[in-house]
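Worked example 3. Consider a protein that binds zinc ion.
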Amino acid sequence: MTEIDILKSIAENLSERKSTAALNNYEVLCNNIKYVNDLLTWGVNSLRIVQSQADTAFKNDSLVLADFKDNTKPHFYFRNIVPRIILNDISVLDKFISYTEPDNRQGITVGNVGKLQKSFTDYNNLVTSARQFIDSLVADAYQLTLLEAKSTNYQVLVSLNSFSKYTTKSIRQGLFNAAIENSLNEFETLNYNQWANSHITKCAHKNFGDKVDFLFTNLNLTAETDFKEEIKNLFKFSSEFTHIGYVSTFFTSSDISEVIFTDSISPYLPSTENFSELKYEILETATKFYSKIYLPTLLNSFKKSFEPSTFQIFETSLAQLQSKIIENLKTRNNQYYFFIKQGLIASNSVIDLTCMCGTTNNWQPPHDLANIYCKCCGSKFNLLEIEGDPGYIMTSSGPIKVIGSSVPDFDDLSPERKVELLKQWEELMKKNKL
Ligand SMILES: [Zn+2]
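Given these inputs, the predicted complex is written out as structure tokens:
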């Protein structure tokens, strides 16, 4: 291709936007966004409790390890700094949560469906809050892992130096005391090339990607290459938006009129659905990062700080917090298998499929196999047909009723019959060593 070919393709594609197709199911997206947003909110509220407990414990000499009691050692000063870092992260998390709430569809009609339209500002707020989330939490997790004087000095002094360049006199006076002014003056004697390696500062991993690699290695997660790439890709994608790149501005600032869709809740627009799809993806990546990287890093940092019996208390609560988030996140967009009596599919009966999330989906005839999923959690259903009237089937997770069989539901059985079935199941599992 020549340079003119390239410019032509840009002129044709980035000047007149085509209308975008709705790619996912809006109702499922809204449910899943609500579920994960609630989960992360719960996770952050739990972190608030941990932060306050850690703040108290750091103040108590008898609960910290020897180095943290010695004011000639850097550790001593981290007793103030670590709770402050966590508090900063909670502020960033709160903002992120407020920008990743599900759309409010109450009172939406064909007349006011435009309220759901997503503009440049909406995209920019969502993606910028994601950028702040991933950027701050990676930088802070890096500091929490190192607990090293020069590295923390570097991060704070670089930030102070930028802040002081433009801030107002009153803010500066309120924030900077003589000691911090002296530190900043000392930093200003360094030339730019010395910033990351001097008598007062150090930064061995300046780039975002280097910090991510460092964190994954430190947590022994080097095999999670896909997730590592996902984090780096979110960073690159959000840079495009935050720095007002050509593609993101073009994509989000079109005033093209849209087709109106509708589902069982209200009318909606394709742009609303596309926006929710992006929101869900970002929310899922961020929540995974919070549970798999941030919380374990915090735990390692506490291990370096507190004496064993205090550490154990934090270990129990942080491990529970982490596993609940990971397990609950897995319930979205899952795959489930159902056993079903042969002949039921394509009959005239409505087939009730109760998902693991508790929602019963009424699958209407004609039973379209391409369209079989849970409206609440987005999980896909796979059906395995069984001949005759088989009753219950023994699976590795217990006796399960074959849908359409003439036997009662397992939960409706008498206690005696339940015990009898469970005994049969146990024997079968033993026999087959399952
Ligand atoms: Zn479900």
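Take a moment to read the result before moving on. Residues 18-23 have pLDDT under 50 and may be disordered. The longest helix spans residues 270-305.
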